[in-house]
Amino acid sequence: MISFESDYNNGAHIAVLQHLTETNGLQSASYGDDKWSREAREKIRRACECPEADIFVLVGGTQTNATVIDAMLRSYEGVVAVQTAHINVHESGAVEASGHKVITLPSHEGKMTAADLQNHLERFHADPTWEHMVFPGMVYITFPTELGTIYTAREIEAISEVCQRFQIPLFIDGARLGYGLAAENCDIDLPWLAHHCDAFYIGGTKVGALCGEAVVFPKGGAPKGFFTIVKRHGALLAKSRLAGVQFDALFTDGLYLKIARHAIDMAMQMRQMFVQADLEVKNSPTNQQFVVLSNAQMRQLMEKVLFETWEPIDRDHTLCRFVTSWATTEEDLRQLAEAVRVI
Fold first, then answer.
1. Dihedral (CA of 176, 181, 183, 185) sign
2. pLDDT band at 264, cuts 50/70/90?
3. Contact 80, 135 (CB under 8 A)
4. For a designed S-S bond to 142, which of 170, 173, 216, 263 qualifies (C-beta 3.0 to 4.6 A apart)?
């Protein structure tokens, strides 16, 4: 059975595995002080055009979000995100477990608008009872979003301007960052992104690595005690070479974006396949494609293909998610097309 269930259902890109194998017999320091982690950090700094950036590699996306948010907030502050945000829906209350409320705004195809953010912050500061409320201490957005959409440069710029006006940091979840940057009509690149936020991370788990997310504080000045906070959250790799070697490979010769572009190519072919089958496909230029299926079609397709049911549309139809990755092949798409053809 072929799987389009997620973008982390394969192992790792062959170049990453080769680098792990080649370095396996060598001894190294630990906790981020190994030579490959140092080299990876330098390559990421060059790719981001941020020579002063502080960079840490954590084990996974949920740990990264919870750790960064906890480190950047005071005890009485919360994080502002849209209702569909990963931290609000699919992270088991990890942020709230550290004592920080997720303050939600409306979602517009998965995105936050600067207008909604400004209205919320203005209302908070105008409320005479503000001292009794959870302070909005930072803003969280994802690139791409949970619905596969991407922010334009102007949209992020506008959100960043609001954050600066109210003196709160902007944090960008980049679990699928490569797939957002590689999407057609994306008008930002890695250096631009790095210069328009206070912290972000480069997802490895979903973009060719076995595990690991590289957190970047592009201007330097990571939160005080960040290393210790990472360890308290169980997100620290003692054997840091595992992540260091992987990101060293991903940021050699532009591999990270090359493999992300492959996933986008596969996703656009998949999208066209669904369109030709007269199925309703939601707007997404990235590797996540959302398709409306009748419940009968969905059950029939599930006999041959693994994918996710996202949410009910009505009594008889369901929104389903199909995800490509760096590892998706033409043969995978051929089998999917054959399965779709007969539903």
1. positive
2. very high
3. no
4. 173
pLDDT at 68: 98
The reply to whether omega before 144 is within 30° of 0 (cis) is yes
The pLDDT confidence band at residue 312, using thresholds 50, 70 and 90, is very high
> In this structure, what are the phi and psi dihedrals at residue 228, rounded to the nearest 5 degrees?
-65, -40
Number of H helices, E strands in the chain: 14, 13
- Amino acid occupying residue 135: F
Cβ of 184: how many Cβ atoms within 10 Å? 12
Answer for the pair 257, 250: CB distance below 8 angstroms, yes or no. no
Q: What are 123-143's pLDDT values in tens digits?
A: 999 999 999 999 999 999 999
For helices 153-166 and 114-126, angle between their N-to-C axes, nearest 10 degrees: 10
Tokens found for residue 218? 């592009």
Q: Treating both helix axes as pointing N-terminal to C-terminal, what angle do 241-250 and 14-23 enclose, rounded to 10 degrees?
A: 130
Q: Is 129 exposed, middle or buried (0-12, 13-18, 19+ CB in 10 A)?
A: exposed
Is 281 within 8 Å of 289 (Cβ atoms)?
Answer: yes
Q: How far apart are CA 66 and CA 266, in angstroms?
A: 32
Joined tokens for residue 79? 């994080």
